């Protein structure tokens, strides 16, 4: 059996496809409405969450993002609800993978506080009546989650290079 030298191993890892990983959450209020956020740096409504840091487990990233963006402390996350893979239609080498977790119910949504550097607005919306401007892949993800309760849904997306990302 042969083994890679440290240099060969580094070269092999460098040759792997580039993947941006994000973790986000479905957080509900006591009435079953879903929390969406409007970011300061892009258009549209999205689920709270963000990019997973180096060597950070996705569930840990999701809990961190909820605390950073909303001031919500998730005692523990519920099950994984969705996996969504995406690529750009222009041949960009970066792929995106987003994991959506169930963050449970926020019993006191009025106590949530938007992080002003990233979050312009927080809102709770009926899952079947999302606001105008909800990012299309978020709307499709939420619809898939609603249509398959108790399972993990898997979605694939290719989107035009308009500057938006599916994270």
From TrEMBL:
Cofactor(s), names only, from the UniProt record: Mg(2+)
**What protein name applies here?**
NUDIX hydrolase
Q: Which UniProt keywords apply?
A: Hydrolase
Limits of the Nudix hydrolase domain: 18-147
Per its UniProt entry, which superkingdom is the organism in? Bacteria
| Sample GO molecular function, one term | hydrolase activity
> Lineage from the top down?
Bacteria, Bacillati, Actinomycetota, Actinomycetes, Catenulisporales
* PANTHER family on file: ADP-RIBOSE PYROPHOSPHATASE YJHB-RELATED (PTHR43046:SF16), GDP-MANNOSE MANNOSYL HYDROLASE (PTHR43046)
Q: Which InterPro entries does this entry report, sorted A to Z?
A: NUDIX_hydrolase-like_dom_sf, NUDIX_hydrolase_CS, NUDIX_hydrolase_dom
